[in-house]
């Protein structure tokens, strides 16, 4: 049986493998953020027929739901750009989202957060830092522009996921279409202000090999996986969702060790286990009802 919990855990694992086709596209084309623009265009094209079929859902949706969903897409565009222009710190800085989500829940929604949820956040963050320490990266601090993009994307996602949880009643297809449009607009803006990473001297640009990867990313990661993820985001509190998303860091570290020859030692193993434990704790913790249910539509 497919549940919101299982989707929220498995989709980030899939996104932990995102670097593989994304790196291939960059190696083939050197397109920088424009690569993300092309990928999101594919997602928009794939989702457009379903969005048109359920267009009454879009027409009847309130503006806060649409804005929150679009901002979610913008946050993912920032994250994708952070992977290109920053260090691995960009990934972890993005996944400070549970911290921001707790602050939003306490200060904006006036929600209480259980001790179990706090413990899961601490355990998950310790796990992430151990993964980085084992990779000789150390404690992540914003140093490059990509790191700031990762940090900003994480804060934006915390705001967006809170708005989606409170306001959105969009069907999953329309929701992901709006999400992808938000990502497209943000990626275009980023691509216009940031130069594409320069390729090595003599490296030829081959869009012929890059296009299949762009299509695979646009369909598999953005159109299919994110449709399921946004369905789960409507049902799960932002703090719990942010803890589940930490599994992406562990998946990325394991896949990098297996396919890119990057180190994966005892510290990284312990960190991975802690991230998984944090996710299980978040899944087992009781849901926190909204303090102001009149915010929901």
Automatic annotation (TrEMBL):
UniProt GO cellular component terms: plasma membrane
Keywords tagged on the record: Cell membrane, Membrane, Transmembrane, Transmembrane helix
Domain spans labelled EamA: 5-132
Keyword Cell membrane among UniProt keywords: yes
Source domain of life: Bacteria
Topology in the lipid bilayer: Multi-pass membrane protein
Membrane-spanning residues: 7-25, 31-52, 64-85, 91-109, 118-136, 148-166, 178-199, 211-232, 241-260, 266-284
Family annotation (Pfam families): EamA (PF00892)
Compartments where located: Cell membrane
InterPro entries per UniProt: Diverse_Substrate_Transporter, EamA_dom, EmrE-like
UniProt-listed PANTHER family: EAMA DOMAIN-CONTAINING PROTEIN (PTHR42920:SF5), OS03G0707200 PROTEIN-RELATED (PTHR42920)
Protein name per its UniProtKB record: EamA domain-containing protein
Organism listed in the record: Mesorhizobium metallidurans STM 2683
């Amino acid at each position: 049986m497919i549940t919101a919990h299982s989707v929220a855990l498995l989709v980030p694992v899939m996104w932990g493998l995102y670097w593989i086709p994304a790196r291939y596209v960059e190696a083939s084309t050197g397109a920088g953020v424009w690569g993300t623009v092309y990928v999101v265009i594919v997602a928009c094209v794939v989702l457009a027929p379903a969005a048109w079929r359920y267009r009454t859902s879009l027409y009847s949706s309130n503006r806060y739901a649409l804005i929150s969903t679009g901002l979610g897409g913008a946050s993912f565009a920032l994250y994708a750009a952070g992977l290109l222009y920053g260090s691995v710190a960009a990934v972890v800085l993005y996944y400070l989202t549970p911290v921001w989500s707790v602050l939003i829940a306490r200060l904006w929604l006036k929600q209480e957060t259980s001790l179990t949820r706090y413990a899961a956040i601490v355990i998950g963050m310790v796990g992430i830092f151990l993964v980085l320490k084992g990779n000789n990266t150390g404690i992540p601090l914003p140093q490059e522009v990509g790191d700031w993009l990762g940090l900003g994307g994480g804060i934006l996602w915390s705001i967006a996921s809170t708005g989606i949880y409170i306001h959105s009643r969009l069907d999953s297809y329309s929701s992901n279409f709006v999400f992808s449009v938000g990502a497209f607009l943000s990626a275009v803006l980023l691509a216009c202000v940031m130069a594409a990473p320069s390729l090595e001297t003599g490296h030829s640009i081959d869009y012929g090999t890059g296009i299949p990867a762009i299509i695979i990313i646009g369909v598999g990661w953005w159109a299919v996986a994110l449709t399921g993820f946004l369905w789960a985001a409507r049902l799960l509190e932002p703090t719990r969702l942010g803890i589940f998303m930490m599994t992406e860091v562990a998946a990325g570290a394991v896949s990098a060790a297996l396919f890119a020859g990057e180190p994966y030692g005892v510290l990284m193993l312990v960190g991975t286990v802690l991230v998984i434990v944090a996710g299980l704790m978040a899944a087992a913790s009781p849901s926190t009802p909204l303090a102001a249910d009149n915010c929901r539509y």
